[in-house]
Design goal:
Layout (H helix, E strand, L loop, with lengths): L1 E5 L8 E5 L9 E10 L2 H8 L15 E9 L11 E4 L2 E2 L6 E2 L11 E5 L3 E3 L6 H5 L1 H15 L7 E4 L5 H12 L3 E6 L2 H9 L4 E4 L5 H8 L5 E6 L6 H7 E9 L12 H6 L3 E4 L7 H12 L7 E6 L3 H9 L6 E5 L1
Parallel strand pairs: 10-11, 10-13, 11-12, 13-14, 14-15, 16-17
Antiparallel strand pairs: 1-2, 3-4, 3-8, 3-17, 4-5, 5-9, 6-7
């Protein structure tokens, strides 16, 4: 089969479109013919060697995968060949969660093998491309906002980097949950698109102090929940933006992973700082977002599609942060 594989860590140039052996499934596994694989910043960190999740070389990345079941192991009875599926990338093991596309070869290939329990059927009305956007970004947003953040109807949520795949998902899911959503992004063009996803108010963080804008929009009250993919560079402004008993959901650290922590405001104002790791999310979250997409209540946002052979160009687009929503590869 053809796959995108890298034999060393580095820039996009290390990605090679090459022939690799077809996967051989075990008794409890299924072989999936990949129809779509969505990119994540995790893929970029793994390729560059900067991920806290080490991988063995050579490696085939790709965590977000949708396709058709091609063959099943002899113990598999719940999934049949021909079933349209999306892959839950989290493989439960006695040693903790392992991840397809990280600990195992992933979906940047024509075929991938996974445990049968990780192949989640999807209805015909959900396209392969849309399904491939869901496991990381949409499940992260659902798990963060509801399971970790305990977001309630009527609360105010601040979503940072709303033009990203996860940010655009968080805007929609917060609105689905009945929140008032304030979204930030780095350009007015992206903010116009975010408004169409349902954001009630927007802030360009490159031209405005978002903490001041939040204060203005909320009439000095602040927000209940902050969905933060940025981290250290906006820590102080995040604290200024929260109301009493507010919660910060730490989803990513593209703006730095270390900062000086002033405990005073956190203690005095009963603030909560909550980590969000999608690989700890229950599979029911993925099923929830699949159902909402099938009903048209969530609309996956895809910026651009590339053939598998152009994976380097696709990853470069994601690195440059010029996309709005997700980038998808089609073998």
């Amino acid at each position: 089969m053809k796959a995108i594989r890298f034999h060393e860590f580095g820039e996009v140039e290390v990605l090679k479109y090459e022939d690799v052996p077809d996967p051989v499934i075990g008794d409890d596994e299924v072989l999936v013919r990949v129809k779509a694989a969505a990119l994540n910043h995790l893929d970029l960190r793994i390729r560059s060697g900067k991920s806290p999740r080490p991988v063995d070389l050579p490696h085939i990345g790709g965590v977000d995968i949708a396709g058709d079941v091609e063959a099943v192991g002899k113990n598999v009875t719940d999934v049949k060949p021909g079933t349209k599926v999306v892959i839950d990338p989290t493989v439960k093991t006695p040693k903790g969660p392992m991840v397809v596309g990280v600990n195992f070869y992933g979906g940047f290939a024509e075929y991938v093998k996974v445990p049968a329990v990780n192949a989640v059927p999807i209805p015909d009305e959900v396209s392969y491309d849309d399904a491939a956007t869901l496991p990381i970004c949409y499940v992260t947003a659902w798990y963060g906002l509801f399971d970790r953040g305990n977001m309630q109807k009527g609360e105010t949520v601040l979503v940072h980097a709303a033009g990203s795949g996860t940010g655009s998902a968080a805007v929609q899911i917060a609105k689905e949950g009945g929140a008032f959503v304030i979204a930030t992004a780095g350009s007015d063009e992206k903010l116009e698109k975010v408004k169409k996803l349902g954001a009630d108010a927007t802030v360009n963080y490159n031209t405005h102090d978002f903490a001041e804008e939040v204060k203005r929009i909320t009439e000095g009250k602040g927000v209940d929940v902050i969905f933060d993919q940025i981290g250290a560079s906006i820590w102080e402004n995040n604290l200024k933006s929260l109301k009493m008993q507010g919660r910060i959901l730490l989803v990513g650290v593209v703006g730095g992973g270390q900062t000086t922590f002033n405990f005073g405001p956190v203690i005095v104002r009963d603030l909560s700082v909550l980590g969000v790791t999608v690989f700890n999310a229950p599979r029911s979250n993925l099923i929830n977002v699949i159902n909402l997409v099938s009903l048209g209540r969530l609309r996956p946002v895809i910026d651009k599609r590339f053939p598998l052979s152009e994976a380097a160009s696709a990853q470069k687009l994601l690195e440059d942060r010029s996309q709005f929503g997700k980038v998808v590869l089609n073998p």
